[in-house]
Amino acid sequence: MTNLKDSYTPKEFQEAMKTGIISIGRKGRLKSNNCDKNFLSMLDKEKALISKETVLKTNNVINGQNKKIKNARKCEYDGFKFDSTLELKFYKYLKVKGISFTQQVVYEVQEGFKLEGKKIQAITWRPDFVFEGFVVDTKGFMTEPARLRIKMFMFKYRIPVHIFKTDNDFGKIYKLLEQHL
Prior knowledge:
This protein is of the alpha+beta class. Helix content is 36%, strand content 24%.
């Protein structure tokens, strides 16, 4: 196993994460798998070329996959496919309460186009639940691409989007329905 350097560029740090030289423990603290505590204390004092925030982002995104999203369990119920159990729980909640909604509607937030003879695909977004006058999306973790798609959607369609992150947010639906009636 290679030794830790005094400082890393973000690219070098990502490589150190991939090879297992550096990892992040359960509580979000840096761990050195070859016990070089000098490097870890240097990062704690923010003397390295990268910040702790970059370290955590690098840990969450390795090989283009976000670990938090990767842990979301897809499921099927009533003939619909759900991207997460949170989305399924909200679907069941709405059904039990008798609240009408539409789901899995695809919106084009930016049209496709051609540039220098190459076709550039349109950017689309599929919110989880569409109501009269507003949209609800269930997200346990908000990624940057999702954040941008939502902003583009709100700009183009002028429809507010509400993000529900936990089961505790479900009760807010009544207040939203009252506001948009």
